[in-house]
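We were asked to recover a plausible sequence for a given structure. The inputs and outputs are reproduced exactly as logged, with field labels preserved.

PROBLEM: sequence recovery
POSITIONS: 343
GIVEN STRUCTURE:
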């Protein structure tokens, strides 16, 4: 059985409202029906105190009423509490005030008093129901938002840690080939690969970094690739010093350079140059990476995780699908990345 939960109504506003209502009620008895102030005040306090007590009981009960038939149940509870509170108030008032004129007025006014008390209690009950529903909806939306954020952060963390398997495999194969012919280079490459993986795992817990730190990370990555490809690989990096403090997502540039090296060097034996350009456009940072491209000398289609994974990360971070675009000509392939400012 579903249970409706609510929070107690704030006591301070209720106390102020109850006091004002009690004073107004007493003034009405005095000026409209000619009761003296002491009698009117006593009557008002007794009836309103018991009515307020009934409202507090309804407030306590609403949180434990089932959703099914809650309005009908609240109507019945309000009717029952109105009868009890008004009857008890009548008995208390008749004991406190012995004036025959007042007792006659008391008996004649009971139907009207009951109607007023019932109207107040049913109004309180219905208001509490809607307040409870509103609170439940707000809490549900909050939990949904928190769940979405947790899931998004988990996916971002997973995407940060995923490396292209072929990079690791190729690096290990290169180390294996160098062990016998160039052991010094093999040891150097093992150390560089170890440093690169350590940096990758360490920075996975840092969702944001500066362009300067990301470029330093890229130098570690490129040192491995340069051992693998030697003089064949040339990387031209153009970055102005005044944008190196720009804040960008961690591990966002390495997949782009890896993609450029993979498709720029495949099927070639000569030297190739990959151009890396970073510049500021308005408040955004624009990254442009260009590599040679030969449509007839391309590798078989792989998993495509590098660009697609980056596209997914950018969407999760910025809720935009237009930040990563590619273009190609007969002899070049260009990736354009826009990183919005966090300010």
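RECOVERED SEQUENCE:
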């Amino acid at each position: 059985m579903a249970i409706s939960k609510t929070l107690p109504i704030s006591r301070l506003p209720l106390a102020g409202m109850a006091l004002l209502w009690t004073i107004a009620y007493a003034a009405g008895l005095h000026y409209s029906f000619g009761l003296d102030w002491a009698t009117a005040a006593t009557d008002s306090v007794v009836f309103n105190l018991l009515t307020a007590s009934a409202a507090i009981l309804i407030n306590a009960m609403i949180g434990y009423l089932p959703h099914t038939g809650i309005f009908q149940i609240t109507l019945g509870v309000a009717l029952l509490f109105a009868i009890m509170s008004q009857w008890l108030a009548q008995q208390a008032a008749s004991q406190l005030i012995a004036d025959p004129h007042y007792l006659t007025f008391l008996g004649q006014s009971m139907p009207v008093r009951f109607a007023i008390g019932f109207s107040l209690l049913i109004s309180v009950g219905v208001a509490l129901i809607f307040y409870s529903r509103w609170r439940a909806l707000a809490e549900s939306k909050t939990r949904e938002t928190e769940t979405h954020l947790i899931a998004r952060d988990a996916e971002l963390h997973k995407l940060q840690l995923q490396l292209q398997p072929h990079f690791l495999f190729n690096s290990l194969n290169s180390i294996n080939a160098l062990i016998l012919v160039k052991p010094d280079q093999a040891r150097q490459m093992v150390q560089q690969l170890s440093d690169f993986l350590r940096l990758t795992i360490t920075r996975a817990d840092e969702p944001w970094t500066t362009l300067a730190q990301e470029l330093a990370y890229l130098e570690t990555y490129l040192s491995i690739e340069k051992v693998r490809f030697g003089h064949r690989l040339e990387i031209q990096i153009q970055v102005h010093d005044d944008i190196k403090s720009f804040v960008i997502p961690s591990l966002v540039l390495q997949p782009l350079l890896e993609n450029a090296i993979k498709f720029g060097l495949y099927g070639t034996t000569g030297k190739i140059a990959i151009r890396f350009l970073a510049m500021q456009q308005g408040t955004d940072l624009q990254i442009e990476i260009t590599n040679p491209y030969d449509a007839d000398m391309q590798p078989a289609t792989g998993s495509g995780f590098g660009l697609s994974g980056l596209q997914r990360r950018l969407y999760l971070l910025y809720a935009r699908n237009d930040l990563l675009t590619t273009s190609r000509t007969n002899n070049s392939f260009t990736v354009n990345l826009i990183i919005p400012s966090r300010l």
